[in-house]
Amino acid sequence: MRMIGEPADMAAVLETLIQAGYEVVANGKTYDARGAFGKRVYARVRRAAPRTTTARADRTDRARKQVPPRQHRELGPGTTTN
Asked: In sequence order, what are the residues at sequence separation of 6 or more whose Cβ sits closer than 8 angstroms to the Cβ of residue 23?
């Protein structure tokens, strides 16, 4: 990506891209903008790879009392159907 503008503005745009989940690689060099105001900078931008998280959980439902399956439209004890 080529950006032309003030260095502070370009840094803010690159930071916004990083916060939005993009991987930004810039060499840090700025060049004079030919025929325009400010400076020119080149950067490579791509969607960052999704991060994976590993979690461990212990099952707690094995010691629970088994509940018999209910018939269709049966809501359970203390409830009625119309």
From this structure: 45, 46, 47, 48, 49
